[in-house]
């Protein structure tokens, strides 16, 4: 095997890794569920490279993510379900169909710009998918039968909370403004205090989750993405903590030896440092 810019070489490499007699023992024993966490991890590493503006890392991380697609397609091909070319055909079909204003004739290009066309196209796709599943003897409701069941379970919890709230809001199940949600958050904090006072571990977890869910809802009404906001705060915390670490080192001290009071004083410095 030699490296190549042709996608077919990557597919060949994956097939070789999964070959029953001559492949890699670790790769051979994997399945969709065991590979899924790696797929999610690679997507996050792509996002991280973008956030850092590191194009060299982005190239490598996109390759790692592409490998995950090829990996899943290889497992599916072995099961007789579909192969990598089918994945490519599915996404190219979807992109062409969803952009009639780009790829259609003059009439379609005009209709494609009409309000609501995107949802109409997605509804058609859903109906076709349902018919295809019925033809294969499968449950037509592949994502569940409830209105909110199409929101993926594997999404990060804050993102999933946002998606659930957005979808419920489409049918009018929503707060009219942000202010009452602050009252709801205070109510949830009160219930969390009660759970803490009782020492009820299960209730503490439940009430803490309710509080987070309400905070995400507030962010939605304030047009603030919870994941993005928390990511910013995470980086701010990391930067300030690193300031504390460096200041201690310059003073001949360390994180392990410094008192909480010393670290707190430097933390306050970090908040005003540029």
Describe the structure.
With 274 residues, this protein is mainly α. It has 13 helices and no strands. It has helices at 7-17, 25-29, 32-52, 55-78, 84-98, 100-103, 106-111, 117-135, 157-169, 179-198, 201-221, 226-250, 260-272. Helix 10 packs antiparallel against helix 11 and helix 12 packs across helix 13. The longest helix is centred in the last third of the chain and has 25 residues, at 226-250. It is extended and about 65 Å long. The model has no long low-confidence stretch (mean pLDDT 91).
Task: Please outline what is shown here.
The protein is an all-alpha fold and 274 residues long.
List keywords for this structure.
mainly alpha, single chain, 274 residues, extended, 72% helix
